[in-house]
Amino acid sequence: MARERIFQRHRHPVKTFSLGLQHVLAMYAGAVVVPLIVSSALGFTQEQLTYLIAIDLLACGVATLLQVWGNKYFGVGLPVMLGCAFQAVSPMIMIGQSSGVSAIYGAIIASGLFVLIFSGIFGKLIRLFPPVVTGSVVTIIGLTLIPVAFNDLGGGQGAEDFGSGVHLLLGFGVLVFIILMTRFTTGFVRSISVLIGLFAGTVAAGFMGEVNFTPIRDASWFHMVQPFYFGRPTFEIVPILTMILVAIVSVAESTGVFMALGKILDKDLTSKDLARGYRAEGLAIVLGGIFNSFPYTTYSQNVGLVQMTRVKTRDVIVVAGGLLIVIGFVPKIAALAQLVPGSVLGGAMVALFGMVVSSGIRIIGTQVDLSRHENLFIIACSVGMGLGVTVVPQLFAGAPAWAQIMLGNGIIAGSFTAIFMNLLFNGLGSKDTAAELAESHTDGMVEASGKSA
To answer: TM spans, by residue (predicted)?
Structure first.
């Protein structure tokens, strides 16, 4: 009876549409900011950026529908939204700068296949990623992104007017605006404070003559999907290992989201339900690689929206996924995101990337026993290793090629340090480790979403 009540179809089309649009707005900033950051770092043209944003939004919609339309093979069948995995931003930039764009998409495809193949045993694999490891990895990823934000805030690395008063005024103005929005608003408005900040900053930049309307004029009204838009993918071991680590961290986070929704909906999730969810996420990652977009993961902010609106039916999420697909076929709409000047984006990214760091700290602070010296030592060494290799990558330039696979990338070095030290000090833990982590993640998410309501 409860299951029927949870999944009954919403009977008010206008309200269903508006609620679906609300879910799109809640995740839109994250979905759009990721391609803006990656394209800026890798020097994509305006045309390439327009395609990347459009195909990303379309892929977000497809990935969401794959997850929400559950069947016996894939899809958790819960009202969840999927979007770009923010953890993948820094690794994608590093891979693109060192091995080329083709290696990014080869690594994404390989990591998606990894998730697909091992979806049935991810419960055991996740035991290698308890909160002390996951929290450390997320913290490392966030810290490596902060310099990207400040470079954009200053006007872009290498820009002649880098650090000019206009750039600093816009960048820090947007950051202050987002802080004030977060302080003095609640509920849904707070959840889209970054999106509102980007809009307000762009309007202010327009009055200063800092907005370029060329991308909108040049963009077409409709385009078709082009698999391998950036060329044939290449498969290299270091990028693949990096993206597999990112995928495992994303799956660990998705487990918490699934369990949180299960708790909100009074639905007990089985291991088969979780495996279907992982499988759908793996398939979404593979599609992201084929269509040259991004790896995809479950967005936790939409869980808070489900709790806040008290609307728990899947048809609202189907509408949201459909809206994303429609938007993805219209490059004119995707080009709107290109109006955002780099300094405005940089100001918002300081908050966004800081939230990635604070997310890692939250995992450590709420789910890790910090009274144990061993856990403190794991965090210290793994974060120190990851950040050190990122800041001084030439340290291991003289090491053998096989060693550079482990030592030449800060995220890999930090992650494997955390995994190895956790096994050394804590072993594999109990067999219910994954479930315990998910439950603790659930309590935190439900509490947070309740406060926002």
So the answer is: 21-43, 49-69, 76-96, 102-121, 128-150, 162-181, 188-208, 237-262, 316-337, 343-364, 376-396, 402-425
